[in-house]
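In this supplementary section we document a worked example of the pipeline. Step one takes a protein sequence of length 204 as its only input; no multiple sequence alignment statistics are reported here. Step two produces a three-dimensional model, which step three serialises into structure tokens for compact storage. The input and output of this example are shown verbatim.
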Amino acid sequence: MLAALSQLVTNGENAEYEARKFLAARKSLKRETGDYIRLMLYWYLGRRGKVDLAKAYLDEGWRGIDKDSWPARLAQGDTQVWRERLIGYYLGNVTREEFFAPLRSREAFEASGFNRIGQSYDEIRCEAYFYDALLQAVTGDPATRSARFAKSIQEAALTRVVDRANRFSRELPNLTFAEHHAIVVTIDSTSLRRIGRDCPRRVP
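The serialised model returned by step three reads:
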């Protein structure tokens, strides 16, 4: 996995080969990591104009997915539903409105069932905007791709900052406003540099 991921995020020449090799090796194993590699590979190939090939890898990941099964599986805490929605969003099988509906607010998140899969609202929201940024960078009007990418990656970074600040607040409830502000500034300066590494969910 590390070879494929490192090649993809660093724009390596062997990224497609390493990703394909990894996906082939994972066919009989858990699909979790493979789904994230497919999404990264879509972004990598899309930047090179290989959209049809990028879509083919996602089509393979979408094969056999039943959207109608999601509510029942979410009720059981099935983490795979979130990754299936990501793939569906990239392929256009899940609309942008549908994709972000559970993330409009914490209340919407709690009502959606995604609160049962072991990830917090901030974690999923950060991941959603991170992968949305990659999608915006390679789809739609080329003249607006950079702006759309920047907007989504800023949302991901902001969510990461807020999440870390909230954790400090819970652990240190007696801080003054000035102390809280100093922490947020410190968190912000480090988070923006680490967003690509820390925001997507880490997988085995």
